[in-house]
Amino acid sequence: MSGLRAPSNYTEEPPRHPSLIVNSQEPFNAEPPRSALIASYVTPVDLFYKRNHGPIPVIDDIERYRVSIRGLVEKPLELSMADIRKLRRHIVTATLQCAGNRRTAMSKVKAVKGVGWDVSAIGNAIWGGAKLADVLELVGISKLTSVSPLGGKHVEFVSVDVCKEEKGGPYKGSIPLIQATNSDAEVLLAYEMNGEPLNRDHGYPLRVIVPGVIGARSVKWLSSINIIENECQGFFMQRDYKMFPPTVNWENIDWSTRRPQMDFPVQSVICSLEEENTVKPGKIVVHGYAASGGGRGIERVDVSFDGGKTWVEAIRYQKSGIPYVADDTSSDKWAWVLFKAEADVSHTTEICTKAVDISANVQPENVEVIWNLRGILNTSWHRVHIHVQNPDL
Q1: φ, ψ for residue 144 (rounded to 5)?
Q2: Contact between 41 and 75 (Cβ < 8 Å)
Q3: For the region Disordered, what residue ranges are annotated (predicted)?
Q4: SS3 track for 175-239
């Protein structure tokens, strides 16, 4: 690929918001404070979590940048950014969430391997670009195709990003061809984020956005698109981001027994409070986010102010002035909802939240039952502890 290079050192890292919580410096992985997430429905670019597996590429010459489309296609093609921009521009509001979001809480049960994310490896943005379904038509693959004329069943995305897990090779992942060619799935080759060109942290000049799916499949710094018969055999598809039962450990693991994780499960988190809080007696208002994968809207968010004994239904909202209805066209199906609930609290307690999506999926009560050695998909009830001060002190 012309026009791209990996930085020789980290002095070329882009500028970043000072409030980001850095979980690793090389490669750079950081999340915003949880309170930043509920400040706005659309997450500002500089407060959107940063997830990387290697050094961040540098674009030297955008005029020479090309994305190749090859593999099991009749008409292999190379596209410039100008070519991609000629296609119909599509906008989608979609939440990305790292599969390891809330890993830190899971690690308290038993040690896991992975970046120590708190609750903010998630963000909601407005993505602009060309639909992948439109791009694939350029190489002779029509809409709603599950098997291409030459036998392709999956679409592999390859990055210019190099990572040690791939032995210095590029990061890559894939999705089924039927998903890629379904316009309603709204898979994008995105060049805009919140109305501005992508920045380096988020994949400049071009990345994939796969709405409703764990962030690992939304490959950044796109280099090539391959139409292949079987799913991608890269490390992050075959030996990572898979959900194992609590009985599996590093001695008995068999990666081939599990499918690569795609949709993320239903999730909710309280963001207006930290894990431990000291407050005065009286009204407590909690705010947070809830999201579910696969385009499944949030039917309900329940909040308990007494450790799960009783529950109140939270108010859910997305855009100001427009009522949120989970499966209505006025709502963003790929995006999170924000929620609000309040109650009087007079004594030390635990506040919990659990969300229910439109398929009636609900978060599990305890993290122990979903513990896994990679610490992914912690969607257990989110809990924060409230210590009420003696009003006479």
Answers
A1: 55, 45
A2: no
A3: 1-26
A4: EEHHHHCCHHHCCEEEEEECCEECCHHHCCCCEEECCCECHHHCCCCEEEEEEECCCCCCHHHHC
As a whole number of angstroms, the distance between CA 206 and CA 190 comes to: 6
Write the DSSP symbol of residue 248.
-
Nearest residue to 378 (alpha-carbon basis) of 358, 363, 356: 363
pLDDT tier for residue 211 given thresholds of 50, 70 and 90 = very high
Residue 128: pLDDT over 50? yes
**Which class is 267-388 in CATH?**
mainly beta
330, 391 contact by CB (below 8 A): no
Task: Give the three-state DSSP class for 133.
Answer: helix
Taking Cα atoms as reference points, which of 152, 300, 288 lies closest to residue 227?
152
* Contact partners, residue 91, CB within 8 Å, separation at least 6: 126, 127, 128
Mean predicted lDDT score pLDDT of the chain = 95
| Nearest-angstrom CA–CA distance, 95 and 127 | 10
Q: Which superfamily does 4-239 belong to?
A: Oxidoreductase, molybdopterin-binding domain (3.90.420.10)
Write the DSSP symbol of residue 12. G
Does the pTM exceed 0.90?
Answer: yes
The pLDDT, as a whole number, for residue 390 is 79
pLDDT tens digit sequence for 57-66:
998 899 999 9
**Joined tokens for residue 217:** 């499949």
How do the domains of the chain map onto residue ranges? Answer: 4-239, 267-388
Q: How many Å apart are CA 212 and CA 293, to the nearest integer?
A: 4
User: What average pLDDT does this structure show over 34-46?
Assistant: 98
